[in-house]
Design brief:
The complex is a heterodimer of chains A (373) and B (480).
Chain A lengths: L1 H18 L12 E11 L2 E9 L6 H7 L4 E8 L2 H10 L5 E2 L5 E5 H4 L4 H9 L8 E5 L3 H6 L7 H14 L8 H8 L5 E10 L2 E11 L2 E7 L4 H7 L4 E8 L2 E19 L2 E17 L5 H30 L6 H8 L1 H6 L2 H4 L4 E11 L8 H4 L1
Parallel strand pairs in A: 1-4, 1-5, 5-6, 6-7, 12-13
Antiparallel strand pairs in A: 1-2, 2-3, 7-8, 8-9, 10-11, 11-12
Chain B lengths: L5 H12 L5 E7 L2 E7 L6 H17 L7 H8 L5 E4 L5 H6 L3 E5 L5 E4 L29 H11 L5 E8 L5 E8 L5 H12 L9 H7 L12 E3 L2 H9 L3 E5 L5 E4 L10 H5 L2 H31 L6 H11 L6 H21 L2 H21 L5 H14 L5 H21 L1 H17 L1 E2 L2 E2 L9 H8 L23
Antiparallel strand pairs in B: 1-2, 2-4, 3-5, 4-5, 6-7, 7-9, 8-10, 9-10, 11-12
The chains are: A alpha/beta (373), B alpha+beta (480).
């Protein structure tokens, strides 16, 4: 009898589940796969440009034969983000699929006004790919779509470019989830990579500085080494250093970085300790101990200058902690941090930088080796 | 007239009345006669003539006064396997089972001579448990030949063979074989009791017998392993299992069996032990591929597309662009189509089987994609699943998963990974709650025992001196 009851209960439990819409699946080919989104703001209206993978043909090869584009574009606008989204949905034949998005490009027109609302919108949308790369640009959206080569996706173009630079440890990239997390904290400042067009190709122009909810400036890529050294744990650069009238090319790797916050006499401060390993890659001359010592001093000075410059720009030029030193301070002095206004404290914080580098000259040819024997 | 025994007369009357096509050979002697009864189709007629009829006639022609069962057994018959009996009720059954029965007019006892000879093929090569490096002999339909193969491999005095007649009409011989000082007594007794409890008109094959030996009649998973090879049967005996042979069947049954046993192949024991472990991993993975691949496809392409890498999401969408059916319907259709191919390949003659396989796999497969019936990825997954299913040696296990695969597909098609997980949990709960003759079906994984886990995964006598503990054998040590 209990067995019979159990069966009945199981049937009663399962049937509504089936009938109530668990068959709500949508096959992947019945969705518009968005690979890139560009958001702009003009005349008080939000404008969205979507790049959609064209999967209507029977396959990639067949599509190329037919001469159709691999990606099609969709445009929608509205006075608010919901209106803009509604306009996009109305103009598509299938639901929008955001999980394959590679890059979200925000124009400076938009970021100079506010980016928090859209990032919060992105956070609340479970269908949004949280690993999407966010970049800013001063270019026109149509211009960006026009530079995609051979009908390739601009989103994949940006993604590949960042993957390549990131693998070389010459830039730092933060995913969307990082920005969302930053916006949800009491103090918010961060950097977003900025791209532009140069000679009909994309390039990384620098980093847009976000203070609170909008961008306040741009740090050009040529001045961004110090930022990368401060933000990336495996930064790697190649420098050109002269010693005794000879030029040396030195590969420099950040090996250790220690950020120690302190709070004394109502003053917040940091000790930043950097250790590098470097090697002379090539040169037109030989290296003796004197030259080696000189090279090392020059390198340490160069690195010190880059880091202190980056700190100075952050503290004095922009007056915002996009270097996220407050995270470390918060972790060590949580109560003090809550009682402080970091926006006021940070510009005057004492930041001490020490740099040391081990220089290896072994990779160079030793033309005097036979004499040593 | 001689003093004819009442029993002898009754038996002869019974044989005559029932028109059983039983041959009777009367040989008179001084003061009586003997009657040799046999079924000529079941008897080695040459041996009967040489070993029974000829010596009896010679003896009867001389001073044969007082010839009876005991005398004929001791002085007359030239037969290796003969005995006396006095139960008149058994006479007819004994003759029908292929024995020659010699009735004496002056004796209440009779002689049974085993001259049974049934047409059988020579020792065949394995067709189900195919192996690269292993003995080629395997069981066939003749019980005596099968027993001889086993006895030849295990010459232990503790090897026990107990025979039973199963089937009221067929009287099929069933032999229960085990090594007395190794096998678990509870299992032996339980198996024998279950066999004794079978009351059916007939049994023809070990598969039929297996159905009667289940714990519960609706058990889904096989509770006895099938063995085609005599070397594997011998190995199971040494492991402490009980092997059951059925007259007329080329497959032995092994009990108790656990889930992991289905992933063993005889190659594992004769080749490199590390490769054996690797092969076992492959078989486990194959089971999962065969069972789950198309369901995961449905879940990923229709419910949880976010797990797909972006490029592949686009590619999959392109592949499915011209397919008119949903992922679920397409997967169900293709799996059904694959099962048809599989079933047809089992039935067609071997000579044309491979050709049909190629036609089905390549021509129809390619044509189906071109016709927009299925996506290429789905075809790849279904084909991989079909191939993977063949890696499991004991087909009785994979057959269950072949059926469950369709239910898993429907559950996944209805609820996505939620339904997929629910159904897998249901199957796992069925496996965990099952047992084979009192031994947990998922041992040594559940209940988990690390030592047994190692012993089952690296099942090699050279480095694993003990038998698995979960079988509760009397003797657990195999390497001294």
């Amino acid at each position: 009898m209990p067995k019979k009851r159990f069966r009945r209960a199981a049937v009663i439990a399962l049937v509504p589940l089936v009938l109530a819409g668990c068959w709500d699946f949508v096959d992947i080919n019945q969705k518009n796969i968005i690979t890139t989104a560009i958001l702009d703001k003009k005349d008080g209206a939000y404008m969205s440009y979507l790049e959609i993978a064209n999967t209507d043909a029977s396959g990639p090869d067949a599509k190329k034969d037919a001469g159709s584009d691999e990606y099609v574009f969709l445009k929608g606008n509205g006075k608010t983000y919901p209106e803009m989204r509604d306009a996009l949905e109305r103009s598509t034949d299938q639901p929008i699929y955001l999980n394959a998005m590679q890059a979200l490009v925000l124009t400076e027109n938009l970021t100079n006004d506010d980016i928090a609302e859209y990032l919060n919108r992105l956070r609340s949308d479970v269908n949004y790919r949280k690993r999407v790369i966010i970049v800013t640009t001063s270019e026109e959206p149509e211009a960006l779509f026009k530079i995609s080569k051979n009908g390739e996706s601009i989103g994949f173009y940006i993604q590949d470019m960042f993957n390549h630079l990131n693998a070389q440890n010459q830039i730092f990239v933060r995913e969307t989830s990082h920005f969302i997390e930053s916006l949800s904290s009491s103090y918010s400042s961060f950097l977003i990579p900025s791209i532009g067009i140069n000679d009909n190709a994309l390039e990384l122009r620098g980093y847009s500085v976000v203070d609170d909810t909008k961008t306040v400036g741009l740090i050009p890529i040529q001045q961004a080494d110090g930022i990368v050294l401060l933000k990336d744990s495996k930064a790697h650069f190649q420098y050109f250093i002269s010693a005794q009238e000879t030029a040396y090319t030195v590969n420099t790797h950040l090996t250790k970085k220690k950020v120690t916050p302190y709070y004394q006499d109502g003053q917040a401060g940091f000790n930043l300790d950097f250790k590098f390993s470097a090697e002379v890659a090539y040169s037109t001359g030989s290296v003796d101990d004197g030259i080696k010592q000189e090279l090392r001093s020059s390198l340490e000075q160069l690195l010190y200058d880059k880091i202190t410059d980056a700190v100075w720009v952050s503290q004095k030029q922009y007056g915002c902690d996009y270097l996220t030193l407050h995270d470390t301070f918060h972790a060590i002095y949580p109560e003090t941090y809550h009682n402080l206004s970091w926006a006021e404290v940070y510009p005057d914080a004492q930041i001490n930088v020490t740099v040391s580098a081990d220089l290896d000259t072994q990779p160079l040819m030793d033309y005097e080796a036979y004499r040593k024997e | 007239m001689f003093r004819q025994s009442v029993k002898c007369q009754k038996a002869l009357d019974a044989i005559k009345d029932k028109n059983l096509d039983i041959t009777q050979k009367h040989i008179p002697f001084q003061g009586g006669f003997v009657v040799i009864c046999f079924v000529k189709q079941l008897i080695d007629n040459a041996l009967l003539s040489q070993g029974v009829i000829k010596p009896l006639m010679r003896y009867c022609s001389g001073d044969s006064k007082g010839l009876n069962a005991a005398v004929s057994l001791e002085k007359v018959l030239y037969a290796a396997d003969c005995k006396t009996d006095s139960d008149e009720g058994k006479v007819l059954d004994t003759i029908l089972s292929g024995m020659a029965v010699i009735l004496f007019s002056s004796d209440t006892q009779y002689v049974i001579v085993n001259l049974k000879s049934v047409a059988h093929r020579s020792v065949p090569t394995p067709e189900v448990e195919y192996a690269i490096r292993a003995p080629k002999d395997c069981f066939m339909e003749n019980l005596d030949e099968n027993l001889s193969l086993l006895r030849n491999r295990i010459k232990d005095k503790n090897l026990r063979i107990k025979t039973f007649d199963v089937g009221r009409r067929t009287k099929t011989k069933v032999a229960v074989i085990y090594i007395e000082d190794v096998a678990n007594n509870t299992v032996v007794t339980e198996l024998q009791n279950r066999i004794k409890g079978i009351d059916v008109d007939g049994i023809y094959e070990s598969g039929e017998l297996q159905e009667f030996l289940l714990n519960k009649k609706n058990d889904l998973f096989p509770q006895m392993g099938i063995l085609e090879r005599s070397d594997m049967a011998a190995r199971h005996l040494l492991d402490g299992r009980v092997v059951t042979l059925v007259e007329g069947s080329g497959f032995a049954l092994s009990a108790p069996i656990t889930f992991n046993e289905f992933f063993y192949s005889c190659d594992d024991f004769y080749g490199n032990k590390y490769f054996a472990v690797f092969s076992r991993f492959i078989r486990y993975a194959s089971l999962m591929i065969a069972f789950m691949s198309t369901s995961i496809y449905v879940a990923v392409s229709a419910f949880h597309t976010e797990v797909l890498p972006s490029l592949y999401a686009i590619l999959l969408s392109e592949m499915r662009a011209s397919v008119p059916f949903s992922s679920l319907i397409g997967a169900l259709m293709l799996e059904f189509f694959m099962e048809i191919i599989r079933e047809s390949l089992l039935r067609v003659p071997k000579n044309i089987g491979s050709a049909i396989g190629i036609v089905a796999a390549i021509v129809i497969g390619q044509a189906a994609i071109s016709a927009g019936l299925f996506s290429a990825l789905l075809l790849i997954l279904a084909s991989a699943g079909l191939l993977a299913s063949f890696t499991i040696v004991d087909y009785t296990l994979i057959n269950v998963f072949r059926m469950l695969k369709f239910l898993l597909l429907i559950a996944t098609g209805a609820f996505g990974f939620y339904g997929f997980t629910l159904f897998i949990l249901l199957v796992l709960s069925q496996l965990v709650s099952g047992s084979s003759f009192g031994i947990p079906y998922l041992a040594p994984y559940a209940p988990f025992n690390f030592k047994d886990f190692l012993r089952t995964f690296v099942d090699n006598r050279s480095i694993m001196p003990h038998r698995t503990g979960f079988l509760n054998n009397k003797n657990t040590r195999r390497l001294k």
